[in-house]
Amino acid sequence: MSFRAPIRRIALARPALAARGFHSTPRAFVRVGQEIPNLDVLLEDSPGNKVNLAEEFKSANGYIVGVPAAFSGTCSSKHIPSYINHPKLKQAGQVFVVSVNDPFVMKAWSEQLDPAKQTSIRFLGDPTGEFTKALDLGFEAYEVFGGMRGKRYALKVEDGK
């Protein structure tokens, strides 16, 4: 039992890591009233089909739903199906699901979740993560996903904001 005391002292002597990790600037998460980033970086179904959500929401309302990964367990079994099956989906306006994935993966995932295309939910890939970074909703996930991914979020958009 005496071997535990030195280990405990060493553990207490180590400085704790900062909660913010290596960030030298404060986080700037998307805020209420902030305009949607005007970027032509999101892709729907193929690399040639760019979607600009700032343009899509210029005169429309709706939601942007962010997920860490297409085909992930929770997102596939609960998160996105809860939107697909929501009784008020038709009144929600335009709904986009965004993930840091390529457009082919997002298309395959949409076909798995909504094979009959019964909803108007659109699935967009953010292959470089540029849209996700512009919203400051990304996180580093090298161990699990191999790179930066988007947090799980839902943004209500009204008049482009």
From TrEMBL:
One of its GO terms (molecular function) is thioredoxin peroxidase activity. GO terms for cellular component: cytosol; mitochondrion; peroxisome. The active site is at 75 (cysteine sulfenic acid (-soh) intermediate). Keywords: Antioxidant, Oxidoreductase, Peroxidase, Redox-active center. GO terms for biological process: cell redox homeostasis; cellular response to oxidative stress; hydrogen peroxide catabolic process. Belongs to the peroxiredoxin family. Prx5 subfamily. Thiol-specific peroxidase that catalyzes the reduction of hydrogen peroxide and organic hydroperoxides to water and alcohols, respectively. Plays a role in cell protection against oxidative stress by detoxifying peroxides. This is Peroxiredoxin (Alkyl hydroperoxide reductase subunit C). It comes from Fusarium pseudoanthophilum.
